[in-house]
Amino acid sequence: MFDIGWTELLLIGIVALIVIGPEDLPRMFHTLGRFVARAKAMAREFQSAMNEAAKESGVDEVTADLKKATSAKSLGLDKLEEAASKFEEWDPSASAAARKTVKTEELSPERAEVAEKIRAATAKSATERKAAEAAEAAASPEAAGGAGSKAAKPAAKKKPAAKKPAAKKTAARKTAAKKPAAGAGGKSGE
Known about the structure:
Structural class: mainly alpha
Radius of gyration: 46 Å
Number of strands: 0
Helix content: over 70%
Number of helices: 8
Strand content: under 5%
Shape: elongated
């Protein structure tokens, strides 16, 4: 409680022996012991009174209800732990087909029907998407005309390259503009 070690107690004992004296020291320890015993008894009485008051007011029932409400099972932590253990046991090297298919025998009839509808809709949208991609791939080389699409790409690359020399020309114009001004200033000074 006070975090006093043996060395501190020994130091206190030596100081008490010197200050109080060897004759009065046993009586002082006896009195101190009785005082500590009374303080402990009062603390025990207070604790028991508080426990009785808690029982009378129903706090024990509330704490029991809170413990039940915050249990792992009521919070769903048991299911979370179960899912985590399944994830830890999961083998990624298993075949993809075995992982993707859901056994319809394990599902209720309604859920099995819904699962089949989802699979059919997914297969239908996949075939439509593939057909659209194939039609787009067939249409784009004919519409753009092979060489035209290649010519558009280099033109886009040349635009940033064209900006850099333009910046150099403006810098050259500024220096050229400064020289005649200096020359004109020199002629006017003559």
